[in-house]
Specification:
The structure holds two protein chains of two kinds. Chain A is 85% helix and 0% strand. Chain A has a single domain, classed as MetI-like (MetI-like fold, Orthogonal Bundle). Chain A has helices at 2-10, 12-44, 49-64, 67-80, 87-113, 116-124, 129-144, 146-165, 173-184, 187-216. Chain A is mainly α. By secondary structure, chain B is an alpha/beta fold. Chain B has two domains: 3-87 and 168-250, P-loop containing nucleotide triphosphate hydrolases (Rossmann fold), CATH 3.40.50; 97-163, no CATH class. Chain B has nine helices and ten strands. A six-stranded mixed sheet of chain B has the order 6-7-8-3-9-10, sandwiched between helices. In chain B, strands 2-1-4-5 form a four-stranded antiparallel sheet, with helices on one face. The termini of chain B are far apart. Classes of the chains: A mainly alpha, B alpha/beta. Chain A binds chain B through residues 115, 117-118, 120-128, 131, 135-136, 139-140, 143, 216, 218-220, and chain B through 57, 59, 82-90, 92, 94, 96-100, 109-110, 113-115, 142, 144, 155, 158-159, 162. The complex binds adenosine-5'-diphosphate and magnesium ion (MG). Magnesium ion is lined by residues 49-50, 170-171 of chain B.
């Protein structure tokens, strides 16, 4: 038992720093996933076949390429092509755009759960198609998909571990745990604390989503 | 100058045709509605009543003919359709209140966001309207906490908050339990008395007889017969209308 806590206290700065990097990585990726996911969902339901197809291509591309491959392409590939992308931008971009595909699909299902009558009511009040989408359809879609959005977010938090161990070498929680492990050879202890760190983040996210659900979920 | 001020009809459909695939739903519809007139549209299920109503505010596109509101063409594809719809209230069978908004927000949303009315003024007006429809105490409630009759009265208040020139009702009481039909019809009767131009699709023939100026009877996408309710009920000329009246009266 003593050894377990020693590993934490002796390497606290590294582990806490790693946790902080993971938090920032996850937070920024989540913001991108929400914004891009919403835009792609809007494409998927746009009144134009071409826009719908464009949204479909996005979703299929990002859902069907492994995250690790995205990371390689966005970092090494872009750099070789002469784009001076930072490891942060590549990590946040890949994780965010990858997760956005899932957000878009879930939102789209939420949009289909909004009845045709809601759209007609808004249109008949004088709202444009865009305003109807923004004020009536999407807010309701978000409220009906809070639970699946929570699962996507938890998956994204766990997926963030891939970013640190990929060639990007971002000093995130798992990366720092590996550094501690290779220095102290206390493998179980180092990864135990990494697991605790991820649990802290996922549990907080779960609680936050539960609150959102209690506050906003639509009763029909 | 607006057409209705010049003595012309507020709504005018001319030779309107509309198909869904090869199902001809509106077949050469001519109809003019004067300002202040209350018209009931009756007819069997599937005869095209809803479709006709939805052509008036451009929720359906027509295949040929013309639809005019207040002297202007109704064109679902033009930019002017939004502002035009803002002048036409619509009440649906399923109420269609916004479930993520309170009752008050349901009523103030369009006045504030579409017409640009000050939120405080819109709220004051919304409370007045809730008073008019008899549920001032429900301003802060969620639609899900209201009975069907209450929801429909909020939906009417929501439409009225835009100060429409015309109100369209598509079977506003058909989804209601019998004891709630009365409270909604009472609100509609008051509206008609106040001079609102209304087109009401309904099977409530008691309401038609008592409140409307004209009954328009539709069968199979055609206007088969129309006239003042007294005449229509006493002596409908077409066999289909007779049959319809008999069925409804003897139930
Ligand atoms: N969106 C639609 N797509 C295809 N057919 C439709 C649509 N809306 C209505 N119809 C058809 O048009 C006909 C008239 O419908 P409707 O206007 O709703 O009749 P009513 O309101 O008199 O019952 C029906 O045969 C119906 O099935
Ligand atoms: Mg109908």
């Amino acid at each position: 038992m003593g050894a377990l806590f020693d590993v934490l206290t002796d390497n606290f700065d590294e582990l806490a720093g790693g946790l902080w990097v993971t938090l920032r990585l996850v937070g920024a990726s989540f913001a991108i996933a929400l914004v891009v996911g919403t835009l792609v969902a809007a494409l998927r339901i746009a009144p134009s076949k071409w826009l719908q197809r464009l949204g479909g291509v996005y979703v299929e591309t990002f859902r069907n390429v492994p995250l690790l491959v995205l990371l390689f392409i966005s970092f090494a590939g872009l750099r070789r092509a002469g784009v001076p992308i930072s490891n942060w931008a590549a990590g946040i971009g890949s994780l965010g755009l990858y997760t956005a595909a899932y957000v878009a699909e879930v939102l789209r299902s939420g949009v289909f759960a909004v009845s045709r009558g809601q759209i007609e009511a808004a249109l008949s009040l004088g709202f444009s198609y865009g305003a109807t989408l923004r004020r009536i359809v999407l807010p309701q879609a978000f409220r009906t998909v809070i639970a699946p959005l929570a699962s996507i977010t938890i998956a994204m938090i766990k997926n963030s571990a891939i970013v640190g161990v990929s060639l990007l070498a971002l000093p995130d929680l798992l990366k720092e745990a590996r550094i501690v492990q290779s220095r102290t050879f206390q493998t179980d202890e180092a990864f135990f604390w990494a697991a605790v760190g991820y649990l802290l983040i996922t549990a907080s996210a779960t609680i936050a989503f539960r609150r959102l659900e209690r506050r906003f979920a639509i009763r029909r | 100058m607006a057409n209705s001020d010049a003595g012309g009809p507020l709504v005018e459909l001319r030779a309107v045709r509309k198909s869904f695939g090869d199902n001809l739903v509106l077949d050469d519809i001519d109809l003019a509605i004067a300002p202040g007139e209350a018209v009931v549209v009756a007819g069997p299920s599937g005869s095209g009543k809803s479709t006709m109503l939805r052509c008036i505010n451009g929720l359906e596109e027509i295949d040929s003919g013309s639809v005019r509101f207040d002297g202007r063409p109704v064109d679902p594809r033009s930019k002017s359709i939004g502002p035009m719809r803002a002048e036409i209230g619509m009440v649906f069978q399923q109420f269609n209140l916004f479930p993520h908004k309170t009752v008050l927000e349901n009523i103030t949303l369009a006045p504030v966001k579409v017409k640009g009315i000050e939120p405080a003024a819109a709220q004051a007006r919304a409370r007045e309207l809730l008073e008019t429809v008899g549920i001032p105490e429900k301003a802060g409630a969620s639609p899900a906490d209201l009975s069907g009759g209450q929801q429909q009265r909020v939906a009417i208040a929501r439409a009225l908050a835009m100060d429409p020139k015309l109100m369209l009702f598509d079977e506003p009481t058909s989804a209601l339990d019998p004891e709630m039909i009365r409270e909604v019809l009472d609100v509609m009767r008051e509206l008609a008395r106040g001079g609102m131009t209304m087109v009401v699709v309904t099977h409530e023939m008691g309401f038609a007889r008592e409140v409307c100026d004209r009954i328009v009877f539709i069968d199979d996408g055609r206007i088969v017969e129309q006239g003042p309710p007294a005449e229509f009920f006493a002596a409908a000329k077409s066999p289909r209308a007779r049959e319809f009246v008999d069925k409804i009266i003897h139930h």
